[in-house]
Amino acid sequence: MPTGLAYNHWSLTSGYMLVGGINLTSKKEQRSEETKHSIIAAAEKLFSKQGYETVTIRQIAKEAGCSHTTIYIYFQDKEALLYALSTQPLELLKTSMDMLSVDAFLSSDEKLRRLNEQFIRFCLDNRSMYSIFFEAKSARVDEFEPELAINRIRQHMHHIISRLLGTYLNVPDGDGLLSCSRIYFYMLRGIVGTYTQSEESADSIMARLSPTFHAAFEALLLGFDKQLQDRNE
Amino acid sequence: MPTGLAYNHWSLTSGYMLVGGINLTSKKEQRSEETKHSIIAAAEKLFSKQGYETVTIRQIAKEAGCSHTTIYIYFQDKEALLYALSTQPLELLKTSMDMLSVDAFLSSDEKLRRLNEQFIRFCLDNRSMYSIFFEAKSARVDEFEPELAINRIRQHMHHIISRLLGTYLNVPDGDGLLSCSRIYFYMLRGIVGTYTQSEESADSIMARLSPTFHAAFEALLLGFDKQLQDRNE
Amino acid sequence: MPTGLAYNHWSLTSGYMLVGGINLTSKKEQRSEETKHSIIAAAEKLFSKQGYETVTIRQIAKEAGCSHTTIYIYFQDKEALLYALSTQPLELLKTSMDMLSVDAFLSSDEKLRRLNEQFIRFCLDNRSMYSIFFEAKSARVDEFEPELAINRIRQHMHHIISRLLGTYLNVPDGDGLLSCSRIYFYMLRGIVGTYTQSEESADSIMARLSPTFHAAFEALLLGFDKQLQDRNE
Amino acid sequence: MPTGLAYNHWSLTSGYMLVGGINLTSKKEQRSEETKHSIIAAAEKLFSKQGYETVTIRQIAKEAGCSHTTIYIYFQDKEALLYALSTQPLELLKTSMDMLSVDAFLSSDEKLRRLNEQFIRFCLDNRSMYSIFFEAKSARVDEFEPELAINRIRQHMHHIISRLLGTYLNVPDGDGLLSCSRIYFYMLRGIVGTYTQSEESADSIMARLSPTFHAAFEALLLGFDKQLQDRNE
DNA sequence: CATGAATGAGTATTCATTCAT
DNA sequence: GATGAATGAATACTCATTCAT
Do the chains contact at D186 and C182, CB–CB below 8 Å? Predict the structure, then answer.
């Protein structure tokens, strides 16, 4: 079951360059795009592996096969690069989650199941996302506009999960539901955090462990159910 | 409420130096120990607050009230200090978990409950532990001796949890149990990861959220139970 | 009020391109000239405002409305631009001073008065000139041709002033006159140096302080006179 | 006629280290002082020659014969070095001028004469002072405390000169006097600016030109006198 | 044992300049 | 002629670490 997320954001952005099969971009522009792409790819890779702080601009440049100064042609500074990296994937994730959450043909537990998978895959595909999403690295995160992308989606996701859980468990908003969605988030974070740092490919991880992930959330849902029953008796 | 862990390991370690009331250490040695102690205490405090990377040797020295060069008398480098710092707490944690796991008067679910709490508190009290324990920071981790301490205890903990879960769920070793203990670990990691980076004090977090943490593991155990029942029917 | 200097040298230089009403320059050449002009204008503006060092090539390009690489088509490097900028104004200043000095209808003190004003205005209008004129910025000044323009005019100006002072004071060439013209130069430099770095506009400065400037030189001349009288008594 | 200023501020500061002929400083401290001194000397030399902005920390380090990082042991940053350089000499100058201005045995024109010479020598001995004193290089100058040293003394000097001129010319405070003291300052600045950038030694300059400097101010004073007489007639 | 002095390698960032088109 | 892409050298500043005492 594909998650349907276009994780490689370039496949999308490059789209406008092709009009009726005719490539309107000059060679220059194309090379420029390639360079930018390679910088993004390099940064993505390194941020994921080592974390934002410890990666140096020069490392990124080396990995991208360009001079470190070139990076500054495309991105104002290191932080801008981080946010350029994260904004689009996050928006895509959000869109995808929104679409999922309003799907009329799916039950709420099916929705949760897919949401889990989507989110896990997303984090494994964009491993630098983990620190951005969960660890809110830099000061800017709490001060400027880019933060919004992250915070907005984080809260949005909490909201969606909370709503789906409420529907599934058939409980109204309140402390009980808040607690459940918090726990649900712990699990997501625990899973993603565990594998985000491994060298294993996303595909391999999913192939090997998606039943475990599935079981994890199933257990949680069953557990929540049981807790509610016990409380009501 | 038995966290039972003596986090200040010096209170313990200094003990052996007194044998039958006779102080075997010279004054010099004592002062030396004090210096080492103050360095460790300072590093512990700062690493916990700011994280390993951002703390500087000079900061530690200042906090410890000695020259930065003195630190190199006792520890080969900054990383060695980190590991010196972590080894003992980890051993204490291990000991404590071991004692817990063999306690004849506790049920396995009570043991799990206490283990959760112990571990969470431990990580919140030693926040630099999180990255050491879960993220295996530096290359050294995979190369030198200190790694052992961490890996040993990590595996050991898996083992204990696995055993306790097996007893509690009444299932033999095997894939099912492995999956359950993995999931259990995800939850631990998710919780610890979430709060390890916050500014809130361990006490405050525990006061505010320990019921949630408790509910999380309870839900899991209930869920595991249900999954087993369903599978057997 | 005859400052009489055409600071915009392009109004003059473009003149020669029209011979007998026939435009000998092609459209291309014309556009090229325009670009060059806009670069010079931009550089002039920015150097005057911010000083040579802090202005960047890209700033100039932006101000000139062209690419930064274009600048290198017209000028070998940033310094060459500075000298290209300064040579012509300096020549104009020289010409203007020459014309003034040979004017048959003006008394020598009137000539000095106008010369002061011309020179002060010139420096305030071309503030980057100050450092070029008085401080002989770069090594190149002592190595290449452009220096000549500056040194030549500097000496020329000394010469003119010396001559005018000699006439005015009615003394022959010699140490006394040299000393007087040096002192005269100190005053010029002191005035120009004081205001060349201020943000105030040339017009505003002149409006506010030209009586002071006038008084300064008047005092000097009166003082020189008195000194000579005293010496002769 | 010695100006009485201890331009080498080290001769003063080192004073306290000798108590009754016994050198209380350890070798370490001594070497430290030497290093600091060499850094100051190097910075002084280079700032004077090239100006603050264009001198690099590494240049200073090279000139001082130490690593560039050593500079940061003694001075917080480049700017701190500039101010460390300037504060003491400025204070000494101020003290010296104050003492001069209250001297009961000197006439006001004699005071002015000595003040000129003192100030000129001071600027020639501390050539980086010129830009600090007259050009107020960095932003900090207008924002933070160090500025005070410079502004305070600048204004103080204006004040002293104004007062002495008022006494000498026998005119009350007012526009006339303001104009005169401004002009007086132009001359000071012109002289100092002219020779501050030359390679010639202060001694040589003074030997060669102090009569000219003297003549310059004498001419000004005579001129001011004459202007006042003319105005009163 | 302890320390102040000193340093080399490294950080993000900027800028004048060149190259390929 | 004109330009966007790319770069090497340089900038101030930091930090873990070593050396001499």
Answer: no
Residue A71 near residue A58, CB atoms below 8 Å: no
The residue ranges of every structural domain in chain D are 9-232
Protein residue closest via CA to C1' of E16: C57
CB C14 within 8 A of CB C33: yes
The DSSP string of C78-117 is HHHHHHHHHHHHHHHHHHHHHHHHH-TTS-HHHHHHHHHH
Q: How far apart are CA A136 and CA A138, in angstroms?
A: 6
Facing residues of B18 across strands?
B23
pLDDT score at B33: 80
- CA–C1' gap, D61 and E8, in angstroms: 14
| Closest of C60, C59, C70 to residue C35, by C-alpha | C70
Structure tokens at C1: 């009020």
Q: How far apart are CA C144 and CA C140, in angstroms?
A: 6
Task: Look up the protein residue whose alpha carbon has the minimum distance to the C1' of F9.
Answer: A69
3-state helix, strand, coil in chain D (%, to 5): 80, 0, 20
Nearest chain A Cα distance for residue B8, angstroms: 28
| Confidence grade of residue C85 (pLDDT, cut at 50, 70, 90) | confident
Nearest CA in chain A to B175: A212
Q: What is the rounded CA–CA span in Å between residue B3 and residue B123?
A: 12
Query: Which residues of chain A lie closer than 8 angstroms to B179, CB-CB?
Result: 211-212, 215
Pick the residue from chain A with its C-alpha nearest to B130.
A193
Q: Cβ of B68 < 7 Å from strand E?
A: yes
**Which CATH number is associated with domain A9-232?**
1.10.357.10
Assess A197–B contact: CB distance below 8 Å, yes or no.
yes
Q: Directed axis angle between helix B108-125 and helix B78-102, to 10°? A: 160
As a whole number, mean pLDDT of residues A72-93 equals 88
- CB-based burial, C57-76: b 16+ in 10 Å, e otherwise: beebbebbebeeebbeebbe
**Does the C-beta of A67 come within 7 A of strand E?**
no
- Specify the CATH superfamily of domain C10-232: Tetracycline Repressor, domain 2 (1.10.357.10)
What does the alpha-carbon distance between residue D74 and residue D65 come to, in Å, rounded to a whole number?
14
Ranking A49-58, A117-126, A170-179, D205-214 by mean pLDDT, the lowest is: A49-58
Query: Which one, of A1, A7, A210, A5, lies nearest residue A128 by Cα?
Result: A7
C-alpha distance from residue A151 to each of A139, A145, A147 (Å)? 13, 10, 6
Q: Which secondary structure element, helix H or strand E, spans residue B22, and what is its range?
A: strand B22-23
Model pLDDT, residue D129? 77
pLDDT average, residue stretch B29-48: 86
Q: For residue D35, with 0-12 CB atoms within 10 Å meaning exposed, 13-18 middle and 19 or more buried, which class applies?
A: middle
Q: How far is CA B66 from CA B11, B48, B59, D32, in A?
A: 21, 20, 10, 20
Interval A89-116 mean pLDDT: 92
Between residue 18 and residue 37 of chain D, the positions with Cβ below 7 Å from nucleic chain E are 28-29, 31-32, 34-35
Report which DSSP code applies to D25: S
